[in-house]
Amino acid sequence: MNEARLEELKKILNERRQNLEQGSRENSDAQNFDALNFDTSESDTSNSNASNFNASDLNITNSKALNSNDKNSDDLNLNAERGRKFQNLDPDNTTLFKNSNARNYDKDPIIIKNYEKFFVYAHLLVFLQVSGLLISFIWDIVDFGHIYVDDYLEACIMILLISVITYIFTAIRNKREIRFTDQYIEFLDKGVVKRQCKVEKDKLCKNFSTQNFRTPSFIVLVIFCVGSLGFFFVFLLCMYVANIFIKFVVYFCINKGIKGFKIFPFIKVDEPWHGGYLYYSVVVSAHYYLIYLYSSEIYDEVREYFLQKNINIDYIKKDYTVFI
Fold first, then answer.
1. How would you classify the pairing of strands 318-319 and 266-268?
2. Cβ atoms within 10 Å, residue 202
3. Cβ atoms of 126 and 162 closer than 8 Å
4. Cβ count near 289 (within 10 Å)
5. Alpha carbons 9 and 38: distance in angstroms, whole number
6. pTM higher than 0.90 for the full model?
7. Hey, how many other C-beta atoms are within 10 angstroms of the C-beta on 291?
8. How many angstroms separate the CA atoms of 296 and 277, rounded?
9. Angle, CA 233 vertex, CA 163 and CA 151 arms, to 5°
10. What mean pLDDT is predicted for residues 146-168?
11. What's the confidence (pLDDT) of residue 131?
12. What does each C-alpha distance from 250 to 119, 122, 171, 294 come to in angstroms?
């Protein structure tokens, strides 16, 4: 009789373990209570072998299984909640929200050097001269079949000198910086905030040059191309080549390498600030609107900043024009 009871008890325990593994909490709780009563009432008549399967062993087993089920249930609930959050986000930007340690840019802002003024000045003082030099080079080859090396060497030295002077006064001596906070992109000059730009996706643009293309400029461009019988088109092409060349040289000088170089290194965050109505007509007056991403590390850091605002700068609109 005792052996029969022992086999019956083993069978009941096995069934209850299976129920616990399937996550049947309510059924397992009721069965645990019955098992305790059964084991207590029959403990006096069972032999020494049956005493190995007592109520305390059952309680320990049930407790471990219940704790495991509770933990799995909590993990499932947490994952489901995260899944609902990710479904409401743009797929390109959800990677940022997977990191629970999102950066607080008010306490730990990004601060980068501002090369905006150099490129605004270089657009007039360097790009045009390099473009003119290229056109002259093509003209000499087409019309005369040869070039005057001494003349071009002198012109290159002059352009290089202008470039160095422009860089010294607009980048090195000017203590300009750009600070990225949670609410604003701030343009600083010698530590003083000169302009605060709120991040608005509609205003963001990746510029090829320092200026945006405007419809009147397009009309002028067409007139020049037609009137000059294609000469102005060649000049414009040389402007693009000169623009890429100057950006390449500046990037190489800053980073001592070309890793991460991009032909669209500028992000326009707002309309240019000119400082006055009359001053607006001056080409080199545009300030506090342009971010130059001068290294791959800076690009990645700024990209993460915009991702936290659900903006991927890899896919914002681009402006391809080089003509002011």
1. unpaired
2. 7
3. yes
4. 24
5. 9
6. no
7. 24
8. 37
9. 45
10. 87
11. 84
12. 10, 11, 11, 9
